Amino acid sequence: MECYSKTRKRVKKIVLSTSNEPFLRLKGAMFLYSFLKSPILLFYGFLRKKKYNFLINFFINHFILNALKSMF
Question: By the 8 A CB rule, do 52 and 65 touch?
Fold first, then answer.
């Protein structure tokens, strides 16, 4: 989970630095909140317990990075 929290901080920094308007900042915060609470992360934790690291990497690359790209 240490690696994940580092990426979350990085995302938060990117969101806060790229959005000067309060609306965009709020939108970024809401995105982060929904991202943290999503079932994807429960699935991620389940896979991590089962040690399916290749699936986790696929998941991160395809879904999370695409979500971040579409945000900007």
Answer: no
Is residue 5 situated within a structural domain?
Answer: no
Domain residues for the domain of 52 are 14-71
How far apart CA 62 and CA 70 sit, in angstroms, is 12
Which amino acid is present at 48? R
10-46 residue pLDDT tens: 555 555 555 456 666 666 666 766 666 666 666 666 6
pTM of the model as a whole:
0.23
Task: Quote the number of domains for the chain.
Answer: 1
Does 49 map to a domain? yes
**For residues 34 and 19, what is the distance between their CA atoms, to the nearest angstrom?**
18
Q: What angle do CA 38, 42, 43 make, to 5 degrees?
A: 105
